[in-house]
Amino acid sequence: MSKFLASLVAATMLVPAAARAEGTIEVLHHWVSQSEVDALNVIRKDLESKGFQWKDSAVGGMSGANAQQALRSRLTSGDPPGAMQFLGWEGPQWAEQGVVRDLNDLAEDGGWREALPPQLLTFVTSGDAFIAAPINMHRQNWVWANKKIFDEAGIAVPKTWADLIAAGKKLKEKGITPVAMGDEPWQIGIIFDALLSDLYGPEFYRKVAIDLDPAALNSAEMVKVFDTLREVRGLVDDNFVGRDWAVATGLVINGEAAMQFMGDWAKGEFLAKGLKPNADFYCFATPAKVPTFQYVIDSFGMFTVKDETVQNAQVALAETIMDPAVQKGFNLIKGSIPARTDVSVDDFDDCAKLGFNERAEAIKAGSMLGAMTHGFAAKPEFASVFGDVAAQFFVGNMSSDDAVKMLVEGIDNAR
Amino acid sequence: MNAAKSFSSRLAGWLPRIVVAPSLLVVIVTVYLFILWTGVISFTSSRFVPVYDFAGLEQYVRLWATPRWHTAVANLFIFSALFLFLSTGIGLLMAILLDQNIRAEGFLRAVYLYPMALSFIVTGTAWKWIMNPGLGIQKVINELGWTSFTFDWITDPNMAIYTVVIAGVWQSSGFAMAIFLAGLRGIDNSVIKAAQIEGAGLPLIYRQIIIPMLRPAMLSVIVLLSYIAIKSFDLVLALTNAGPGSATELPSTFMFSATFRRNQMGVGAASAVMMLMTVAAIIVPYLYSELRERNNG
């Protein structure tokens, strides 16, 4: 036997060792930053302990738009990945195309519907089918504040937007930038979404951002929302153009700015500097009579594939994601809270606990809402019109009446 | 013997065609077939994924009713016109100045040409900070003592498109200079000497003799810079990300966001077809006149 043959045999002997795994699943996602990868490893380890292999396909960039492109070409060529991270309407829209696997049996056995907030089901079900397993939940409508600045100026946590704007004006007179932010439409959209539900209640938000009700869109309340947005613009410094959200968070941390409106991914920036919630910084929901919880979730959907080993791996992955222990481990690293409502958050930080409790209240009070700016209310073609109008209004001199007119026309044009 | 010879001569005749065929096929499929496909999509009601129904001109109507598209089209004309005019003008001026037998010409030429070696992403990011009023030029000059100086175009929706022009011109005028310089070197010195003997001054020589003789270089510069202007997607993305608001939207950024981020594949395809038509409206007459000249000559 030649040396070549011997090495060939040796090479083939290695294969069974790797193939001992029950099956391999390729997971397409857009998480590439360190904390995101670390969080994913919680899922990966649990899956591997069940004997399945995780094949990582990370496509970063453009808030997931690049990963979506990768998926489109994979589906067109008839070679979908085993699982894919879904944001917003992506899951239901792919399900309508008939390419997503129905996980209803798993959901029934695992009691997923009971364990999840009912408002979430829009984005993880399609008809009777259960199409995605949600791993985490971010809240979009947080305010992050520098405690030292608040305490020195004698400012308490504001209870209404009028309080918040008054506090901002007071800080501005003292030479402190009240609000740190950038000019990206989604950063402006976070404030716009919060104003919609905070000023006129969750019902108004639903009519405007979900039902696209023409009367609500073209109402005096809408004008008032833009008026308030204009007041918030007065609290932002003039150098906000081109500023990254994390840079804005840094301004709050350094004491150059007092507060920032941002989802709870901003919390990681504070924690990474060794700062403690309520001791060094405040976290509170955007002020409202009924505090709203505007959620953003990441879920994983499975595509219809022929390979049985992949099918088995899909089941294992879905069960792993919905495992309360995995959800806890994942979210401790990611900075979000578990999508399941029955996971204990005792080990989490104070902001996560506050979010967890306010979510329970919001579910009861009906103020649990999908965050439009991140794709969890109106479909993208409409949500982007809100984003355009709010951003153009915010950076320019448009009047509130013109903004409402532009919004109504834009929505009609996209219908 | 005879058969073999005719085979080899036939092969020699076919060889060029066989060699070119694969690349031709690739170009036909990846360029022209997809142009055709985009055209088809623009007449359908496609949103999230392509659907093949017939929606008539619905997407074009929707496109032209979108204010952002109007901004994009206006910006393309402002940007292209200023970018072409300034890059060509500054490039020509620099080439003429460098052509005066000055010392260290090779070094200076490299300095001016070097920005071309950067990608637009780098240019855009650097100029984003240079033109930010709180970090760049305005801050430096204010701190030097001229406190009333303002340069905040990048924050002003009405002026932001000009910041894209500034960054683009900075990057590309050195390139125009290099081509003009090569053109200037190709001009026969005896022509200039003859004009000098006739008593013509230097400005007159440049205006009446040298610049007209640079016509071929001018054409290459304009054609190449037009391409850069139309595909300047990455510069806008890095410099302003189409903002503030959507003030620096260009047709290319509009097309990308409509197709890939906004569930409006049909509108995106319609905008792509409009871009193709615009380019064709400029290029086709140019090609026609060039080809006709060649046939005559």
From TrEMBL, chain A:
The keyword Signal is annotated on this UniProt entry: yes
Primary location group: periplasm
InterPro entries: Bact_solute-bd_prot1, SBP
Function: Part of a binding-protein-dependent transport system for a sugar.
SUPFAM superfamilies assigned to the protein according to its UniProt record, in alphabetical order: Periplasmic binding protein-like II
Family: Belongs to the bacterial solute-binding protein 1 family.
The keyword S-adenosyl-L-methionine is assigned to this record: no
The protein, known as: Probable sugar-binding periplasmic protein
Compartmental location: Periplasm
Keywords of this entry: Periplasm, Signal, Sugar transport, Transport
Protein's organism: Sinorhizobium kostiense
Signal peptide: 1-21
Coiled-coil spans in chain: none
UniProtKB/TrEMBL annotation, chain B:
Record family assignment: Belongs to the binding-protein-dependent transport system permease family.
Membrane topology: Multi-pass membrane protein
Name of the protein this chain belongs to: Glucose/mannose transport system permease protein
Keywords from the named record: Cell membrane, Membrane, Transmembrane, Transmembrane helix, Transport
Residue intervals passing through the bilayer: 20-43, 76-98, 110-130, 159-184, 205-230, 265-288
Domain ABC transmembrane type-1: 73-288
Protein location: Cell membrane
Lineage: Bacteria, Pseudomonadati, Pseudomonadota, Alphaproteobacteria, Hyphomicrobiales
Any single Pfam family the record assigns to this protein: BPD_transp_1
Highest taxon of source: Bacteria
